[in-house]
Amino acid sequence: MTAQARARIVVQKDEHKFSCAHMTVFADGTKERLHGHNFHLGVAIELPADDQFPMLDFARVKAVLADLCAELKEHLLLPAHCPLVKVLHHDDRELEISFCDRRYVMPSEDALLLPVDNIVVERLARYLWSRIRDGLQAELQECGALELDVTVTESPGQGATWSAPLP
Description:
Radius of gyration: 18 Å
Strand content: 35-45%
Helix content: 10-25%
CATH class of the domain at 6-23 and 39-79 and 116-165: Alpha Beta
Order of helices and strands: EEEHEEEEEHHEE
CATH architecture of the domain at 6-23 and 39-79 and 116-165: 2-Layer Sandwich
Largest sheet: 5 strands, antiparallel
Distance between the termini: 22 Å
């Protein structure tokens, strides 16, 4: 069996970044202290290497990445699906949580509860994979995209990539 040729486009630009705070939870139930990173977001998209499909518009990909970075930047990212995080109070003004038996109170607008179990690069890459797929769904289908890879780095040379085929 012969593998089919594929094209791979990559969008990984300095402007696709978001500075956020987080606390990683460890398997023993402890956590890191609150700290921040300048996360960078990039994608690679595999396409069939034939003329049957239209090209993927780089501008649309960059726009989706920029929107996600703008949404996340300058927030405390919290894992909504972590059993060690309990929301004690949440309204338009204030968020109060218990996190590993420590109490945190902050303005609601300063925190984002993400649908993940831990705020680590591999979980962020998987979460953002879904958001990017949804944001580019029509374009990915139109160009016959085969696979989407999303990379999140927290410092140069340190990050994770979530890769999955597209339906």
